[in-house]
Recover the amino acids of this structure.
DNA sequence: ACAAAAGGTGACGGTTTTTGGCACCGTTCT
DNA sequence: AGAACGGTGCCAAAAACCGTCACCTTTTGT
């Protein structure tokens, strides 16, 4: 794993100096000419574009566009990034959505296959409404940091989610529902769940949820959540947010 | 690099089985108990949280929250993600912005130090206006894919940017300006540049820019772009978008 | 109380991978 | 022609890696 450090050093120097020779790199890094050549080869394999002028007075040049960076992310972080970009795309025109998309495609590609399937299932349950000018922008409170991971694991493992809810009138209740989808009507975010007691879909504003946790040992099936305007189970939400 | 494969296999089995012993892992992977222990150690170093119950009937358990994934991104992709999240945060309340932020912080951390300085400078020049209900949402056309990388390199290397522009009346002109900032008034995006000929700031709607390129050999200094409402050089933009 | 089953550490020698040195090739500039 | 470049193949030395063994602590079953 020491080669990684050396290769980073090479990239740094090429970036700094603009152009350089193998000799110079070898001396600065403190290794042999041969090793530098090997490192250049693997860097090129990894996608770095390094031009080389052969012959006297020649040297190496790194194409700055080809610089890549590797990041290590946790799954909630990946999910947060995914929904950020997804929401952004749906909300307004996002000029660079293509680029963001290729970034996201790479994220997907790097995940284990089963994980991708999971995320796909999750994103399918992410419903994003049109940005409406009628909304009160300052109406959204802070959302509990733990809600996203909880929703994610609950949804994927098909376990019920339990939380404390404070409704519009300020009344507090304890809920235990099947997490079915997330509804985004910027800037308001809702958790959509099936309430087995009331035998119906219910929506919960995320900033009014607290103490969320999955309920171990439970198991539900994912329901078809109708999202057409007519049968939208939270059309009242749409009205209320006006 | 063989150890990477082995460690991935270990993670996979821990994810699948929920709980497992070192013995079982060693047999399944086809290696020795000692090597598994070494791998566990380096996995823990990398940030995986693996609980271990010592004593008879004990075993290993992987904290699913700690699963990480590594991605390799190009700089334009990173920048696209950054501005996506930044714009999203500013446009509406983004519930999971904290998580997205830690993701972005990691992206920053993984970049070379000078690169971070560059990106900071860029993001400082990213001005995001409040979402206004007066805007015509369907008014934004597609933005040329190459514009972002061009703006990025031009801004960072302080080179002029040259492009073809089609103004509101449909008239086409060729421009050559100092790229100074980006202005986002969702869903409209503007490039703000100092035009040396006209000796003043000019704004250009990004979807009206085409054939953008940096002008080699030129060099400008970054100017202070006043963004206070009163002195805003594109207050007329704000009016016109109404 | 004792043995078995579990995680964890340290040391040593063999095996595999990485690295350095060398000879050599093609190209370009002086 | 010769020097200064990048690039390739080969082999021995160096370093990293891996398996074995011996041993320790904790927990649980009998």
């Amino acid at each position: 794993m020491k080669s990684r450090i050396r290769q980073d050093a090479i990239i740094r120097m090429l970036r700094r100096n603009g152009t350089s020779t193998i000799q110079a790199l070898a001396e600065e890094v403190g290794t042999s000419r041969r090793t530098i050549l090997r490192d250049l080869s693997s860097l090129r394999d990894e996608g770095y574009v390094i031009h080389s002028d052969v012959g006297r007075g020649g040297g190496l040049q790194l194409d700055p566009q080809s610089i890549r960076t590797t990041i290590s992310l946790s799954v909630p972080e990946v999910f947060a990034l995914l929904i950020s970009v997804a929401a952004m795309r749906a909300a307004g025109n996002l000029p660079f959505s293509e680029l963001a998309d290729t970034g996201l495609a790479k994220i997907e590609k790097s995940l284990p296959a089963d994980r991708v399937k999971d995320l796909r299932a999750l994103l399918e349950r992410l419903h994003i409404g049109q940005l409406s000018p009628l909304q009160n922008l300052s109406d959204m409170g802070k959302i509990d940091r733990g809600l996203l991971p909880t929703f994610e694991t609950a949804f994927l493992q098909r376990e019920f989610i339990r939380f404390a809810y404070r409704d519009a009138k300020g009344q507090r209740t304890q809920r235990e529902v099947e997490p079915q989808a997330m509804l985004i009507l910027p800037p308001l975010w809702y958790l959509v769940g099936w309430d087995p007691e009331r035998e119906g879909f219910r929506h919960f504003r995320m900033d009014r949820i607290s103490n969320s946790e999955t309920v171990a040992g439970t198991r539900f099936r994912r329901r078809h959540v109708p999202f057409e305007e007519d049968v939208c189970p939270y059309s009242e939400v749409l009205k209320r947010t006006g």
Remarks:
- Chain A touches chain B through 64 residues (CB under 8 Å).
- DSSP finds eight helices and ten strands in chain A.
- The beta strands of chain A are 19-20, 50-53, 59-62, 68-74, 126-128, 160-166, 172-185, 188-195, 200-205, 209-215.
- The first helix of chain A runs from residue 2 to 17.
